[in-house]
Design a protein that fits this description.
This protein has one helix at 45-53; strands at 18-26, 31-36, 42-43, 56-57, 73-74, 86-91. By secondary structure, it is mainly beta.
Length: 104
């Protein structure tokens, strides 16, 4: 069985290739925030490239984004809640499992 996961960009019905993760580091506690982005949990390659090309840092508002802990990067498709940190993309592994009769 192949699980088809759709792109989370509004209006897109294509198959996603990446899981979208929000990543940040808390210096005071040493904890790492590494969770799926609920605003766009999966994305296809075309939208991932657009997302990165149009990303902006709050501090700069021009040019390439500054990806740093406790900073904020603004993206057109991901991190719509403007959480601190930045987006990373984890490839979705397509898992094919053979079904064996009478085996549970």
């Amino acid at each position: 069985m192949i699980l088809e996961i759709r792109c989370g960009v509004e209006g897109c019905e294509n198959i996603a290739a990446y899981e979208v993760i929000l990543y940040d580091i808390y210096f005071d506690s040493g904890e790492v925030f590494f969770e799926r982005d609920i605003t766009c949990p999966y994305i296809r390659p075309k939208h991932m490239i657009e997302n990165e090309r149009q990303a902006l840092s709050f501090e700069e508002n021009q040019g390439p984004p500054i990806r740093q802990p406790r900073g904020t990067v603004y993206y057109p498709f991901t991190n719509k809640n403007h959480a601190q940190g930045f987006t990373i993309y984890r490839p979705i592994e397509v898992v094919k499992k053979a079904i064996t009769p009478n085996v549970m």
